[in-house]
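Protein modeling request. Please complete all fields; requests missing the sequence field cannot be processed.
Requester role: graduate student
Desired output: 3D structure, token encoding
Chains: 1
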Amino acid sequence: MNGILILDGTGGSALSEIVRSKAVEMAAAKGYEAETLEIGRDDLPPCIGCLDCITKHPGSCIYDAAVRPIAEKAANRRLVLLLASSSFGNPSSAAKNVMDRGMLIVKESCRQLVIGVGADASDEEASAFVDIVARHRGAAEIVHTRFRETIDAFFARRPEDCAAPIEFLARVL
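Delivered output (173 residues):
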């Protein structure tokens, strides 16, 4: 299926539901199907930094049983959208675990879009979130040679903040 996969690591906040529904509407308007997969804190074990996914078994995580179902759902998708709750400018542990597996879950031909969600976040926290997420993958070509794309990152504190990421989504679909 050449649609979009929405990985929701927010715990289902009202704001994340608005972002998700707008993304689904945009995908449908462009002729794509969208599927949402809830990602909880305990669904993916944290990356332990063993680098086996790069050195010993390229493309495979030592936690393959947890990563493979998500990777299979992401296969052949045009875009993977990650909704991430945020604390103090950092993505949630659920979102971070997905981003750590980015090269295993998302193929080179797929775009990744991360939208941080936090109604109580300050301007500094929202800016820090975008910087942290973008840099997480932005300079990673040095380590993760299979993954050449950057992650596009946005932050929404209010429903009107959804306009920029949804406009971006419209351009890349």
